[in-house]
Amino acid sequence: MCVIWGIPYLMIRVAVRELAPVTMVFLRTGIAAALLVPLAARRRELRPLLGHWRPLVAYTAVEVALPWLLLGHAETRLTSSLTGLLIAAVPLVGALIVTLSRERARLGRRRWLGLLVGIVGVSAIVGLDVGQINLVALGEVAVVAVCYAVGPLILARRMGRLPALGIVAASLALSALVYAPLAATNWPTTFPSAHVVESVVGLAVVCSAAAFLIFFALIREVGPLRATVITYVNPAVAAVLGVTLLNERLTVGMVIGFALVLVGSILATGGAPEAVVEP
């Protein structure tokens, strides 16, 4: 998951060079839904969702529809490396939400230390090398971090026993339906380049359809809070790809932050997994 969800920042950055963010999100969700909905229907994993449509809509909004649009819009003004690094705030947001809600998935001192060390790493990147950053784009990424922290909690607490394939297929299909009219009014006038097409297909097949199924299995294995700690390594993957493939600048802050997020990840994932809070 650290690798699979470190790749999208590169692909999004490439895609939004020629596609409007709404069009990119529609294509990403539409292609992934076209792959998964028939399979979910054949396995009869969509019908059980009918009685849980409220948490399904909430999950779709905070895990797919809103954050993917905001990421696309933010990456029209931020590098893929910096965007990925800022997403490392997700585990801390999740930890605060769980702690404030007084659920069973509590944090020990070692895990708190790991989360804080990881955030210090992100702060080093932003504080040392932010330069002239677009504040609107920064705010959009902050909202994405909150969404990515809330999504796994909704999944674990309200839909923990529902079929994973059905949830993934339905959430992608709902998002595609919402963005279809917006994409139609922002359709490109010329056919996108090969790199853009490859990025959209990669986002849909690898980073959406396959990734969500793996992520659901991870949540059920280690709990929603520890599952989000993958976002400590995702930024490192995003930074390496941005530097090597898009010629984005490698900075001192990125090097320091890379080391700190790895240390934070090791500390934060130590100990026994939390129990998933099921309905």
Mean pLDDT level = 83
Portion of residues in beta strands equals under 5%
What is the approximate shape? globular
Can you tell me the residue ranges where pLDDT is under 50 for at least 5 consecutive residues?
A: 271-279
Helix tally? Answer: 12
Helix/strand order, N-terminal first: HHHHHHHHHHHH
Overall tally of domains? 1
- The radius of gyration over CA amounts to 18 Å
Q: How far is the first residue's CA from the last residue's CA?
A: 26 Å
State the helicity in percent bands.
over 70%
Largest sheet: none
Counting DSSP E segments of at least 2 residues, the number of strands comes to 0
Structural class of the helix and strand makeup?
Answer: mainly alpha
Compile the SSE list and pairings:
Layout: H1 8-15, H2 21-42, H3 53-74, H4 80-86, H5 90-101, H6 109-129, H7 135-158, H8 164-184, H9 194-222, H10 224-227, H11 234-245, H12 252-268
Helix pairs in contact: 1-4, 1-9, 2-3, 2-8, 2-9, 3-7, 3-8, 4-11, 5-7, 6-12, 8-9
Summary keywords:
single chain, 279 residues, mainly alpha, 12 helices, 71% helix
Notes on the protein architecture:
The chain has one domain. It is mostly helical and 279 residues long. Mean pLDDT is 83; it is low at 271-279. It has twelve helices and no strands. 71% of the residues lie in helices and 0% in strands.
